[in-house]
Design brief:
This protein is an alpha+beta fold and 375 residues long. The chain folds into 2 domains: 40-204, MetI-like (MetI-like fold); 266-367, Outer membrane lipoprotein wza fold like, CATH 3.10.560.10. It has 15 helices and 5 strands. The chain has helices at residues 2-34, 40-73, 79-91, 94-105, 110-117, 126-150, 154-162, 167-196, 199-204, 211-222, 224-233, 242-247, 288-294, 325-329, 358-367, and strands at residues 266-272, 278-282, 302-312, 318-323, 343-348. It has a 5-stranded mixed beta sheet with strand order 2-1-5-3-4. Helix 1 packs across helix 11, helix 4 (94-105) crosses helix 6 (126-150) and helix 6 crosses helix 8 (167-196). It starts with a helix and ends in an 8-residue tail after the last helix.
């Protein structure tokens, strides 16, 4: 009787793990695979995801292997504290991990401001994606690598030392070959976790979009039907612009079973020191002044001399435009014409979150249909 109950419980648990994935692949996989070659945004997102996850994994292996070997082979004061620090990113919510990274790597931080001096942008770039992936997935590699080193019999290493080999030579010729299979497995787990990361990435680099962020963006913008091909096979529906249809540059053939989705309008995002941050639908030509007015206007402590516009040129390229809004108000320069998917950042003197607490920023990310981007 006990064996029957255990088998039933195990079967139900396995079904619970397998059924959602199987249903997702069955619902969206075939459609997504059929339309893969027609979606340039997804192809760019896939390449970006694979490249950034691979770089993060390489950095994790280079930095985490010595730590894993130290924890597996040495006993020292503070060893438990070091192990706890390494495991900490796994335990905290990943959006909070992204906020923590933003505090250290944001433009107003010591590291971020120093990087800007050399023209390097961490927030809203591939570098930010790599940092987020590395932060949340490296602990998995260190933990698995530590176990791989611990399984190597120390007597083999002792024999090498008695034969006159240095510690490095013993590690290279004895320890590393015996633990290599476990280290490769640890690296694969880290890479897979990096590819799947969403919470920290969406805080630190909403654009350019990796696959997880693209899936979320399509779901919140278009609904479940549009998100299914992305979530099922990471291959979304092709998005055709009406303007391209009018000019004749794109005129796709519609087949039986295809879903034709005509969006209401393309959005512009406003964040920071405005009364109502969020998204504005770009139905007609929209200027910066009109967009700020539609967002309820700027706050009293807003820094109007430098309003920043992030304009996505491609999956891996982003333009940053600094606008002197005071000059626009005084008619000393023409108003800025906004483009679809522009992100407008209105800063102030109170911090990188535009006067919002980190809890407000986190709530905006999780609860809004379009996140407030805390750049």
């Amino acid at each position: 009787m006990a064996s029957l109950i255990a088998a039933l419980a195990g079967s139900l648990f396995l079904l619970f793990l397998f059924a959602p994935i199987a249903k997702l692949v069955a619902s969206g996989g075939a459609t997504g695979a059929h339309r893969f070659f027609g979606d340039t945004e997804l192809r760019s997102s896939l390449w970006l995801t694979a490249a950034t996850a691979t770089i993060a994994t390489i950095l994790g292996v280079l930095g985490g292997t010595p730590l894993a070997y130290l924890l597996a082979r040495r006993t020292f004061r503070g060893r438990a504290i070091l192990a706890a620090i390494i495991d900490l990113p796994i335990l905290i919510p990943h959006p909070v991990a992204g906020i923590a990274l933003l505090l250290v790597l944001g433009r107003q931080s010591l590291v971020g401001s120093a990087a800007l001096q050399f023209g390097l942008h961490v927030v809203g770039s591939a570098g930010g994606i790599i940092a987020a992936m590395l932060f949340v997935s490296a602990p998995l590699y260190v933990s698995a690598a530590r176990e791989a080193f611990a399984r190597v019999d120390t007597r083999y290493e002792a024999v090498g030392r008695t034969l006159g080999d240095t510690a490095w030579r013993v590690f290279r010729r004895v320890t590393l070959p015996l633990s290599l299979r476990g280290l490769i497995g640890a690296a694969v787990v880290m890479w897979a976790r990096a590819v799947a990361e969403f919470g920290a990435v969406v805080i630190l680099a909403y654009n350019p979009k990796v696959v997880s962020v693209l899936s979320y963006d399509r779901f919140t913008s278009y609904g479940l039907t549009e998100a299914l091909p992305v979530a099922g096979t990471a291959i979304p529906l092709q998005v055709i612009k009406i303007a391209d249809l009018k000019t004749g540059s794109v005129n796709p053939i519609i087949r039986s079973g295809d879903l034709v989705l005509v969006t209401e309008a393309e959005p512009v995002y406003i964040t920071g020191s405005v009364v109502a941050p969020g998204q504005i639908m770009l139905r007609d030509q929209l200027t910066l002044s009109k967009a700020l007015s539609m967002a309820g206007g700027t706050s009293k402590d807003a820094k109007l001399s430098t309003i920043r516009i992030y304009r996505q040129k491609s999956a891996a390229q982003q333009d940053i435009i600094d606008v002197d809004f005071e000059a626009i108000k005084k008619n000393r320069r023409p108003d800025e014409i906004l483009q679809p998917y522009d992100t407008i950042e209105v800063t102030n003197q109170t911090g990188i979150f535009g006067g919002q607490s980190w809890l407000q920023v986190l709530a905006g990310i999780l609860l809004r249909s379009t996140p407030v981007l805390p750049y």
